[in-house]
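Example record

One chain of 552 residues, shown exactly as stored in the release files.
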Amino acid sequence: MSGYDLIDSPWLLLRLCGETTQKPYSLRETLLQAHRFDALEVDVATQTPALMRQVLLPVVMDALGRPSDRKEWARRFTNGRFTDSEQKAINAYLDEHRSRFDLFSREAPFAQAAGLHTTKQETKGTALLIATQASGNNVPLFSARTEGDPLPLTPAEAARWLLHAQCWDTAGIKSGAADDDMAKAGKTTGNVTGPLGALGVIVPMGRTLFETLMLNIPIGAQPADDLPQWRRPPMSGQWTTRRITGLLDLWTWQARRIRLIPEETEQGLQVCRVVLCAGDRLQALPEWEPHTAWSFVKDPKSPTGTQRRPRRHLPGKAAWRGMEALLVAERQDGDDGAETSVLLSHLADLQAEGALPFDYPLQVQTIGMVYGTQSAVVEDVLFDSIPLPIAGLRTETDTYTTLVEVTEQAEDLAKAVNGLSADLRRARGADPIPWNKGQRPGEFVLHALDPLVRRFLVEVRASADDPDQLERGHTAWEQLAYWKTKDVAERLFATATGSEFAGRVVKKDKAEYVYRLAFAEQNFRRQLRAALPRWAQSIRDQPDDEPGELSA
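Predicted structure tokens for this chain:
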């Protein structure tokens, strides 16, 4: 069986800057010409961090070294490409380790265990590698195929999904490798998801693939014993639980033991069957994991009284709605809260020192996976991309204050409309819509405000942290936000019947509460004025029947 060299065989999908079509490129071409590409093109959003962490970033960092300080990082970033000497170093590195980048090697196949097999010599379909395909207990709700349907993959496709499985594979029982001492009855239990499955992944994106690579390499010393998986001994079916030695180890973590089984077909070399078993387990997630933000929750058992956990993304929630978690560099002592990722914190420091211009068009991708039933099935794949003004990453700036206030205002407007809906429903004798059931009208407000917030984020880049310019932009945003909220509220008022005018009296805890249309509208206007103080100031002297005020 012929091999498949990932260094010089085309398997990574990319698009040249300014072009609309994508083409496959080899690992060597991808890195040496990184300045010519926009970004990776992927089959599913969760492949982006998998390919970045499992191959691209560790090759660059191991070949060139990690920037020791901000000055070195800025020098390399300002070049806009890998210099001739850096390209020479990357070429030499790839040539030196070529044997470990053979996808179908008999001795050490890339990111796999050679000769991996179960005691019964069982194999499974390649759908086992693909989170969105039906396989075993993982049967997506709207999957168009069943586990019995063949799913042949080209070597390029198989390589991409192999690395995806090392990062995102489901938890639960796995087939036991024949040489796995910890397998029982041919199975291995207690498996957790791949390492990225526990995170709400945050990936800074630049204008080119080269800039994106640099934006994702943290600054600091690199441990001498930190090695990527291809510089470690070839894997067997045995696995262990251990601590991370450094970034290279973390990025190329082998959470599963996998063997791709290639075969010659009429369509050429393809992978139709795989063996997938348990792999190494993290003893603890390092606090310097660079691709996630963090939440702090109260924990009486912790010496500090709080516990630091990776912040997960929520289904249906736009990335800008968690803006504060993206911007706060450090948690304030004494309270719960959030802390941004190591990478975004570094970018804030670089911008403060002038290494990155204030108007740099930084994009941030938020990527996650929602698991169900003990994390053994995939329910949803989460993805969003938002522009993030770099000046907003520093909490002492006016940009930071403005961004946090705008996102909080959007939430307040949604709450105001939800409160209006609840008051109108009570006025007609019905209960409010439960917060965890059905679709509340506040979601329509957030949906309507979404393009306004994204446009505002782009426009803030040009403000140079100018308070006057920020204030004008903020005022304009509030006025547009008012009209979007008004449109949703008017739909609620249009459903009112005669019963809402008369209202209802509700007794609760020996007190009486009156709910009627007039009170609902009055309360809603009060909340609007509180949420949008700049808009409220602009209409303060206007009569109620002039534009700018709601009418029932």
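Notes: The radius of gyration is 27 Å.
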